[in-house]
Amino acid sequence: MYRFVYYFIYKFQRTKEDDYSSRYLASLSVFITIVFHLFFITSCARFFFNFNGKLFIFSEDNLTNKLIQVAISIPFILLTNLYFNKKRAEKIIDNFDDAYYSGKMSYVFSAVNILLFFLITIAPIAIGAYLINHSAMILERQ
Q1: CA dist., res. 93 & res. 3, Å (int)
Q2: Which of 4, 30, 76, 125 is buried most deeply by CB count within 10 Å?
Q3: pLDDT in tens, 86-118
Q4: Taking Cα atoms as reference points, which of 9, 55, 50 lies closest to residue 32?
């Protein structure tokens, strides 16, 4: 799933003279997708189990929370970038290109693949926001 996100963004950003920026943007997109999935999991826990969701709150001050969250996120962004190194990126690209040329996968920007990319990346954050909104209403009623 995350390899598909990487491949999709890599192919979208690919330029011949700058391989690093397309690899970096693709790995950053994978990191953001992982964050969206974690948000979706916590919103499901909040909705189904009345979990209050104060897992990432470190202080009463909003600015302090944001700074701590950014400081925690930066090493994970770098680890994601290191994980998708040049060798691994070439292997992912070759695997998806081989699947395309052998007929196992459609064109990377086909309607099916765009819908799959949307379902993997955007749908979890939309569903999570919906669940959090409705769990807040349920908690207010109690």
Answers
A1: 9
A2: 30
A3: 899 889 888 888 887 777 777 778 888 889 999
A4: 9
pLDDT (0 to 100) of residue 43:
86
The answer to whether 39 and 126 are in contact (CB under 8 A) is no
Please list the ranges in the chain whose pLDDT falls under 70: 15-18, 51-59, 136-142
Which pTM value belongs to this model? 0.81
Distance between CA atoms of residues 58 and 48, nearest Å: 24
Token readout for 38 is 């974690």
- How many C-beta atoms lie closer than 10 Å to residue 8's C-beta? 21
Render the burial of 62-99: b for 16+ CB within 10 Å, e for the rest: eeeeeeeeeeeeeeebeebbeebeeeebeebbeebeee
Cβ-contact 77, 28 below 8 angstroms: yes
